[in-house]
Amino acid sequence: MSRTILYRALLALAVFAVLSPGGVSQAWEPTKPVEFVIPAGTGGGADQMARLIAGLNDKHKLSPRPLIVVNKSGGAGAEGFLHVKEKKGDAHTIIITLSNLFTTPLATGTPFSWRDFTPVSRMALDRFILWVNAETPYKSAKEYIDAVKKSPGMKMGGTGSKQEDQIITVQVEQALGLKFTYVPFKGGGEVCVNLVGKHVDSTVNNPIECVSHWKAGRVRPLAVFDPERIPDPDWKAIPTVKEALGLDIQYNMLRGIFGPPGMPKEAVDWYIGFLKKVFDTKDFQDYLHKGALKGAFTTGAEYVKWVEGADKLHKELMEKGGLIKK
Question: What pLDDT, in 10s, does the model give residues 4-60?
Fold first, then answer.
């Protein structure tokens, strides 16, 4: 056999080995640190979950490269979303999304939508609770609402303007004929701190954002905006808003992961596998339990279908509440 023929045969075998399922080629994985963008401030639910995921990656060696967490909260999260939108095809950037993925473009007119990003996975759904300072006399949601009726304009703190917290506040106002003075803050952690400091009269924080202050006896949960009580033993005594006030108001917030537009499929597949490993760790499950989040891992077509429905719901709610930028 001539050298030329032998060379060609060996080259063909090498190519076949690389391309074949059992070949020596490896699936995609990060080759440099991954930028993990949080379109919200520090201390809130999205920030806590992103930092937990980054920490579990380090603890369990789930990725060959670290996740570098970056907060970009400007413009109700628009700063973070636009940053990722501009990274078309980048396989080393991901963003954790809350419902400002839907609310921010509607409220501000900022040019982006969820369709500008690559869906990776939904990690959980977050509940909302009506909270008051523990030093106030209000022991029930009815007692607090009665006080608001007598003193219109009591302060309701929330994350951002025309986002999830204000949507819930407007729903309560419309259902009961009330008027709050809505006070926006950069993140959920800051919201609860201001409730502790008595700078606002109430909040509708996510459980994880106020749980440490609750356990320390600084705040009091009055009702949960969910069709059922939270099943976890620590939380199950809190009534639903329907039980407490007769209101059929329920709202769950997305805790999901997206990539930039055009993220390569092999990278999406890697992140799905990586995030499922994170989700299955005892640490992450303990975090869901502690913060009363609903574990809701899903990917692919099911995730896209859920996002489409959530996008439609937020348009309806914000339109009804007069929160859409004209």
Answer: 444 454 444 444 444 444 444 579 999 999 999 999 988 889 999 999 999 999 999
Contact predicate 214/220, CB 8 Å: yes
DSSP string across 32-77:
SPEEEEESS-TTSHHHHHHHHHHHHHHHHT-SSS-EEEEE--TTTT
The pair phi, psi for residue 86, each rounded to 5°, is -75, -10
Residues 213-244: pLDDT tens digits? 999 999 999 999 999 999 999 999 999 999 99
Fold type of domain 34-126+253-320: D-Maltodextrin-Binding Protein; domain 2 (3.40.190)
CB 210 within 8 A of CB 196: no
**pTM for this model (two decimals):** 0.86
Give dist(CA 324, CA 218) in Å, integer: 35
Beta carbons within 8 Å of 185's beta carbon, 6+ residues apart: 41, 157, 158, 159, 160, 191, 194
One CATH from 3.30.420.10, 3.40.190.10, 3.40.50.880, 3.40.50.1370 for 129-245? 3.40.190.10
SS3 108: helix
